[in-house]
Amino acid sequence: MSIKTDVSSSIQSGMSDVIWDKDLLTVPWACAGLGIKPSEIRILTALAFFWQGRLVGSLLFHDGYAGRDVWWTIYTVDKHWCQRRFLRTIFRVAFEDFHFRRIGIIVRADNKKSLSLVRRLGFVEEGRFRQIEDDGTDCLVFSMLKNENQFV
User: Fold this and answer.
1) Is the Cβ–Cβ distance between 19 and 58 less than 8 Å?
2) How far is C-alpha 2 from the geometric centre of its chain's CA atoms?
3) SS3 of 5, please?
4) pTM of the full predicted structure?
5) Is 2 domain-assigned?
6) The domain that contains 124 carries what CATH number?
7) Strand (E) positions, 6-115?
8) CB of 74 closer than 8 Å to CB of 104
9) How does pLDDT run across 74-105, given as a tens digit for each residue?
């Protein structure tokens, strides 16, 4: 799947696709949904997920390490973002287009659906940030190395 770059035409056409959000138009929407300020993370790029012309999710690539590693933050309002063809695209972008060797994800310890998803996708648990959230909740740290990826 090639990545298109025009977010506004994706909305108008009613398409379902992964769009490279080159102008970072979906970042404020995703950050508001996550309860963070866009200035709190250093965004490298973003992908937007559209389902039937409606924005249903955004994947933020941020705070990479030495150009080899990247963190992902995903915000979604609909389960349709998580289709196999979308997953192949986002992992291809990370591992083949940007040549990252590692993707990291942090998940709240009480977010059972997200924990289940990252494990099913093949991410490996690496550790725990104890009481890192404002409410005292722990977060778990996961990563995936390029050679562990099952989608590309």
Assistant:
1) no
2) 18
3) coil
4) 0.83
5) no
6) 3.40.630.30
7) 17-20, 43-51, 54-65, 69-76, 102-108
8) no
9) 999 988 788 888 899 899 999 999 999 999 99
